[in-house]
Amino acid sequence: MQLTNRSKMVSNKEQSLSERLYLPAILKGMSITMSHLFKKKVTIDFPEKERPRAPVYRGQHVLKRDEKGAERCTACGLCAVACPAEAITMESAERKKGEEHLYREEKYARIYEINMLRCIFCGLCEEACPKEAIFLTDRIVDAEYERGDFVYGKDKLVESKDNTGKIDVSTRQTAEVAEFKKVPGLKHNTLFENKQLKEKH
User: Fold this and answer.
1) What is the pTM of this model?
2) What would the DSSP string read from start to end of 29-84?
């Protein structure tokens, strides 16, 4: 059965001696290689030098603290549910009396782990978080020798309490969220109509 009317002419031309020895092809390949020796290097000497990255570059995660130094995360699990790679696991616990300075809410993440080998750095976790607890930063994930070392726990994810350890995530926050936070008396988990927002202003 003929599928098309097109035909293709096949050449049966015999190769010359030089073509059979592949000398022209070898010389052409060597000339291309030699030309690259005199071009500017494409690679850089990392980590001594780094390429400029966009302000919204998505790198290593951080679990933020609030203004008083308490952890924002309430272990609600929305980030784990939103994660398409299923890289986030957590275990919640109840806050005890006297731990108000450690955890902002009654419930907190006793264990919070992210498998960096599974993570695709899509940013869906920070979009799903109602407490603005998790953000992706401009930091690069360190290279490791063992697979287990790529499972980051709270020791690597939670930002330190001192001012030098604070991580600026203002570039990751949208203008709508920044405007929302300026309104006094609003809670993150409460839905407000536009009319109510104008009244609060």
Assistant:
1) 0.68
2) HHHHHHHHHTSPPS---TTTS-----TT---SEEE-B-TTS-B------HHHHH-T
Collect all residues with Cβ–Cβ distance below 8 Å to 160 and sequence separation of at least 6: 166
The model's pLDDT over 20-56, given as tens digits with 9 standing for 90+, comes to: 778 888 899 999 999 988 888 888 888 888 888 888 8
Task: Write out the two tokens for 130.
Answer: 């109602």
Which are the contacts of 117, defined by CB distance < 8 A and separation ≥ 6? Answer: 147, 150
Q: What is the CATH number of domain 62-191?
A: 3.30.70.3270
Q: Look at residue 79 in the predicted model and tell me its pLDDT.
A: 94
Alpha carbon distance 143, 149 (integer Å): 9
- Any idea where the domains of the chain sit in the sequence? 62-191
pLDDT per position as a tens digit, 105-118: 899 999 999 999 99
Q: How many CA atoms lie within 13 A of 22 on its CB side?
A: 3
